[in-house]
Every structure is written in structure tokens, then in C-alpha cells.
Amino acid sequence: MVGVDAREAAGPRRGQRAGAAGRARYVAELVSRLPALDPAARFVLYTDASAAAPPPAPANATRRELRGAGLPWHVRAARAARRECTLYLSTTTYVTPQLLPRYVQTVYDVIAFKEVARPQARAARIERATMRRAVRRAARILAISEATAADLRELVPEAGDKIVVTPLAADPRFRTAIPDETLARVRTRYGLPDSFVLATGTIEPRKNLDRLVRAYGALPDELRRGCPLVLAGRRGWDADPVFAAIAELDGASVRHLDFVPDEDLPGLYAAATVFCYPSLYEGFGLPVLEAMQSGTPVVTSNVSSMPEVGGDAVRYVEPHDEASIAASLADLLSDAAARAELSRAGVERARRFSWEETARLTMDALRAAV
Predict the structure, then answer these.
(1) Contact partners, residue 76, CB within 8 Å, separation at least 6
(2) Is the Cα torsion angle 15, 242, 231, 325 positive or negative in sign?
(3) Per-residue pLDDT band at 148 (split at 50, 70, 90)
(4) Which of 47, 151, 219, 271 has its CA at 20 to 30 Å from residue 176's CA atom?
(5) Pairing between strand 274-277 and 197-200?
(6) Tens digit of pLDDT for each residue in 18-41?
(7) How many secondary structure helices (H) and strands (E) does the chain include?
(8) pLDDT, tens digit, for every residue of 35-73?
(9) Which CATH number does the domain 2-168+354-369 belong to among 3.40.50.2000, 3.30.420.40, 3.30.70.1230, 3.40.50.720?
(10) Using alpha carbons only, how large is the chain's radius of gyration in Å?
């Protein structure tokens, strides 16, 4: 019997807004695919009572809804897993494994230990207190990219031989053939012009959006007039520098859409002229892959996992250099042929990533751990 922390797969918590968060997508895909890979196996999906709309459990899986949140939930999940399971897959936390004898641990990134990423303070404190021990004791460790695996080996050298790289994938909804009526609906809903530069993600320091805004502001006036910068994502922590940078520009040239629901994201990606993601650090960088699969030309950073995802199908920039970001944007916005070539290459490269392969690699790791 394999227990799985399936809370993220059950939908947004009450009081939270839905979104295309990478962790939620990852857990939802594993929960739906792992049981099908081994019908003889049995799974227990541990959730909590705050899910808005939990998906149905597969035939060889049982859902356990546990009361509470925070530490009480982790204690109840660990007690239940010790009683019911041979192995536990910890998908979203390092807390529950502190109470378990045998488990497989997913690691998305080591942001809590990266000064350049400027993580949210409370989350970083929890991870610094729990990650190393959880990784050391894990039977296997699932890293979502080679970059995360390398960072983890540096942080916890003894984890080395236990790490299995299980890359993420983009949802099939992100594709080039978006119906015209969907594109028109998205443009109308958000008041978008025919051409615009898109950036997505929570507005927080790691996303480097203040530098993006200043780089965009350095573009020639004719480019900015015809192609505004659109930021799609809720306001996170330490967001004031981004809005200060916006305030210094003509208000019409930079738009903040705030939160965009899942159902609108494929149309938003497909409608964009260029997608720009100059993040300072990513465990995987799923938005880069989503944009590539949508056929949208991508400008992204040359650090951490982004080159691993983008390969030779994106345009790279030095994320600390505003002139580098501005030059790549200006070049692509002025060259339709270059955009078309990146679009073709991005779609082709995106085919290398699939949730089927992610699930297969995960199942192999679970079997090895048992």
C-alpha cells in the first residue's frame, strides 16, 4: 500500500483562488496516473477537508480525508500512513516525513537556501528547519529537474545516489490550435490588443519583474505603443518595487491583470506575441514550457533550470542585466521571422516532456524504494 499526500490534487483550499500552480498540477497528474500504471497496487490518497472539489479516486485508490490543517494534519497523516501503508509519497511538504519510517520525497527546488531567490520568510524558515532531515532519511528523492538535483546534491551530499529526476510537463490544454472564439473571448475579457508581451507568475522578488518592467521601458517608443507589457499574476510579497517601476512608465504601456483563472491561461499564452520569463531561480520553470507548447516565442533567463527546459528553442538573457532583456525583446518584437522560428522550435521541444513519462519515472522510484 502506497500513501500519497494528495491535498494539492483536490483543488484550491477554501478561501484560496484557483491557479495553474506547478505543484498542484504535478500532484493532480500523479494521483490520476500512478494507480493506472499498476492496477495490482493499492494507493491511499490523503487529503483534507478544505478542498473545493476533490477529484474521484481511481478504482485501486482510497481517499482519506483527514481533519485539521498545519501540524495537526501532518500528525494525523503520519499516524494513518504508519498504520496503513508500506511507503508514503510526500509531494508537498517536508513536515510529514519527520514522523514516518519510510517514504519517497519530492523536491521542487531549494529556494529557501538561495539568497538570490529572496524567498517568503515564513516558508523559508519551515523548509530550512525540515528539508535536510527529510531528504537524508528518504528512501528515494524525486527532483523535478537536473538543476534541482544538482542544487540538492550540493546542499545534502549524502542524498546523491537516491535522487531520481522526474521532469514536469505542460497540460495538453496549452497548444497552438486555440479556437478563434476562445482567443477573442480572452482578448475581450482582459482588454488586450492584437500584440502584447506576456509575463506570468506571482509578483514576488524571484520573478524579477521590476527589471523586466524597466527593460521594457527602455524599448523604443514605437515598439511600446504597439505592444504593451501584460503581467498576469497575483500580488505576492515584496511586490512594491515592481509597481514602483510601473508607475515610472506611461500607464498605458504596462498592464497588471492580477489573478487569471486556469480556463483563460491557454488563450492568454496563445494570444501573446512574446512570452518573457526572466526569473532569477526556478526549480523547473513550468510557464516556459507552457508558452513553448502554445507556440509563443519565449525569452527567459540563462540560469538554474530554464536552459534545461528551453534547450535551443528559446531566447536567453542574463536576468540581472536589464539591457540584455531589452535587447532580446526588441529583437523579437521587430523580427516576425525570428518569432516564427522560435514558435516552431518551441512546439517541437515541448513534445519531449510528458506527464506519462513523469508518472512512469515516479512509479519506478516507488518500486525501488519498496
Answers:
(1) 66, 67, 68
(2) negative
(3) very high
(4) 219
(5) parallel
(6) 333 688 889 999 999 999 999 999
(7) 14, 13
(8) 999 999 999 999 987 665 666 778 899 999 999 889 999
(9) 3.40.50.2000
(10) 21
Q: Judge if 2-168+354-369 and 180-350 fold alike in CATH terms.
A: yes
Q: Residue 267: name the closest of 336, 346, 334, 192 by CA.
A: 192
The total of other beta-carbon atoms located within 10 Å of residue 302's CB is 15
Range list of H helices, the chain: 22-37, 71-84, 121-137, 146-155, 180-190, 209-217, 221-226, 240-247, 265-271, 286-293, 306-310, 322-333, 336-350, 355-369
Helix, strand, coil percent content, the chain, rounded in steps of 5:
50, 15, 35
28, 9 contact by CB (below 8 A): yes
Contacts of 151 (CB under 8 A, 6+ apart): 109, 110, 114, 304
What residue ranges do the domains of the chain occupy? 2-168+354-369, 180-350
Residue 15 has pLDDT above 60, yes or no: no
Half-sphere exposure of 152 (CA within 13 A, CB side): 31
Determine the residue type at 91.
T
Q: What is the spatial distance between Cα 48 and Cα 113, in angstroms, rounded to a whole number?
A: 29
pLDDT of residue 55: 66
pLDDT of residue 318: 98
pLDDT at 91: 97
CA gap 316, 305 in Å, rounded: 12
In angstroms, how far is CA 313 from the centroid of its own chain? 19
Q: What is the pLDDT of residues 319-354, one digit of tens each?
A: 999 999 999 999 999 999 999 999 999 999 999 999
Three-state SS string over 313-370 comes to CCEEECCCCHHHHHHHHHHHHCCHHHHHHHHHHHHHHHCCCCHHHHHHHHHHHHHHHC
User: Is there a contact between 288 and 298 (Cβ–Cβ < 8 Å)?
Assistant: yes
Using alpha carbons, list the distances in angstroms from residue 242 to 26, 118, 209.
29, 15, 6
Compute the distance between CA of residue 319 and CA of residue 40 in angstroms, rounded to an integer. Answer: 48
Contact assessment for residue 333 and residue 227, using Cβ atoms and an 8 Å cutoff: yes
Q: How far apart are CA 365 and CA 217, in angstroms?
A: 47
Neighbour tally for 237: CB within 10 Å? 15
